Amino acid sequence: MNNSLPWPTEAEVLPLASVRPVLDRLASLVNTHEEDSTLIPGLAVTEEEVAADPPPALEQIGDELGGIEVRGLTMLTLQIEDRTDVGPYTLLGPATSYYPLYETPEAAVVLALDEDGTPGAVYGIGEDLALQLAADDLAAYLERFADALETTLDALAERGPADDESEGSRADAAEQLMDQHLFAALLGMAEPDESAEIPLQDPATSGLTDLPEGTLAVADLRSAPVGARVDLMEVDVPGDPLEMHVLWRERGRVIVLCDS
């Protein structure tokens, strides 16, 4: 494994058994719809050199699964090679505090990592930089992804053989279907549900302890349902909001907004 980032090493490795059923389901879907989808091999089985640098806690899962492509579009990845702090990652903290599972220039789905490297909740980040809770953990997100993938691949199959359709048209349909059944709800493409908003609080009155130095505001999602949303720009703190950054606590269920 390429460990070029200074990953924390205290976290336990997520056992492969915890996601075995959904990995088998994903493999079955790809095998059934092989003209429209591709399984990206894991680091332990790929014959190509991969520059990906996943966190140590994902070692077992990443060794088996690299991701999923639909019509050549990467819809799920555990092999992000180029990390950046712009676009959807503008307000996120160090690269070791999260790991992208899906990204576009304007949006992303990320796995939150606690300070010891423990994987936690999965969030969608829209163009407005708001965070939306996508799943309680990686296993739950993979299940949600598999549901959307199955619906998308079935719909593509109903269009007829891929050879009877232009590559561009089929790819556009695949992208629209995945947006419809998964990403639109996570990445700010749909009208926000105001009842799902979780406000940022003053850390002094939040009741939370052991917060990082420089904490400006916190959002407590420990009892929030999937779909809960935190607008990081809706915070009254000194300075430029774009110079703040996010850290995670409580397996990603506490969002900590810190100064730079």
Query: What form results from the Cα inertia axes?
Result: globular
Query: How would you write the strand order of the largest sheet?
Result: 4-5-6-7-9
Whole-number radius of gyration?
19 Å
The CATH level-2 architecture of the largest domain is identified as: 3-Layer(aba) Sandwich
Helical proportion, percent range: 10-25%
Class per helix and strand makeup:
alpha+beta
CATH topology of the largest domain: SMI1/KNR4-like
Low-confidence spans: none
CATH class of the largest domain: Alpha Beta
- Cα end-to-end separation: 31 Å
Write a compact overview of the structure shown.
This protein is α+β, with helices and mostly antiparallel strands and 260 residues long. It has four helices and eleven strands.
Question: What is the topological layout?
Answer:
Elements: H1 20-32, E1 37-41, H2 59-64, E2 65-70, E3 73-77, E4 98-103, E5 108-113, E6 119-125, E7 131-135, H3 138-158, H4 167-186, E8 215-220, E9 229-230, E10 245-249, E11 254-258
Antiparallel strand pairs: 1-2, 2-3, 4-5, 5-6, 6-7, 7-9, 8-11, 10-11
